[in-house]
Structure formats: structure tokens, C-alpha cells
Amino acid sequence: MAETRRRLRSSTVVLGGMGVLAAALSACGSDPDRRCVDRDSYDYLNGYKVVADKNCKSGSSGSGSYGKGGQKTGSSKSVGDADWYYDADVSNGWADYGTFSRSEAVDRGGFGCSGSGSGGG
Predict the structure, then answer these.
(1) What's phi and psi for 57, nearest 5 deg?
(2) What is the 3-state secondary structure (H, E, C) of the chain?
(3) Rounded-to-integer distance, Cα 78 and Cα 67, Å
């Protein structure tokens, strides 16, 4: 009976590990998280002010917004120097520690991603 329990436990660990590996590898193919920000609004403590997606150039990387949770947007007026800001930490309508380069954001991905981006900032 102990042998059956041990075998079952081992197969559960193997199957769980394969699931984690599959999730890590599939994350590389997805688009990076992005926010539309006003480049002229940079604040040393907060980063860039997040503005409405319509202010950013369309077609940069697909359509729609790629965000975690709700996205806070700035005023509805047009912003002159708005651009997509990738893989940023977003808090209270401000985005920081990201990049304006989509290819750099993709290279900074998970375990199985191509490229040799570093985790430093």
C-alpha cells in the first residue's frame, strides 16, 4: 500500500512540474503588458502618467489594451507625446520601471524565452 501511495505522489509531482514548465514556455509567445503614457509627464517618484489608449499610435502591437486589472486613464484631452510603455509597474495612474521598446519587453520574458535580457533595472 505504501508503494502505491509513493507511486501516486511521484506521478503527481511530475505532472505538476510539467504544467508549470508548459505555462512558463507559453508565456513567451504572448504580447507584453503595455500602457499608453505621456512621455512629457515623467515624475521622478511616480514615473509616467497613464493616459487613454486612444492617445497612442495605433497598430504598435495588435489592438486593444493588455493590462492586469483595471486601467486608470488620464484626462480625455489629446496628449501630444503619448507612446506605449511596456512591462511597467502601474500604481494610481502612474507607470514606472518599464520600457518603450516592445522587443526589449519581449526579451525580458520568462524561462524559455529567447534573448538574454537581465532582470536589472
Answers:
(1) -60, 130
(2) CHHHHHHHHHHHHHHHHHHHHHHHHHHHHCCCCEEEEEEEEEECCCEEEECCHHHCCCCCCCCCCCCCCCCCCCCCCCCCCEEEEECCEEECCEEECCECCHHHHHHCCCCCCCCCCCCCC
(3) 21
Closest by alpha carbon to 29, among 112, 89, 99?
112
Q: What phi, psi does 49 have (nearest 5°)? A: -75, 125
Quick: pLDDT tens for 24-77: 555 555 788 999 999 999 999 999 999 999 999 765 443 344 344 344 444 456
Amino acid (one-letter) located at 18? M
In terms of phi and psi (left: phi > 0; alpha: psi -120 to 50; beta: otherwise), the region of 104 is alpha
Residue 44 identity (one-letter amino acid): Y
Residues pairing with 84 in the sheet: 36
**One-letter identity of residue 45:** L
Taking a C-beta distance cutoff of 8 angstroms, is the pair 96, 88 a contact?
yes
Q: What is the C-alpha to C-alpha distance for residues 121 and 110, in angstroms, rounded to an integer?
A: 16
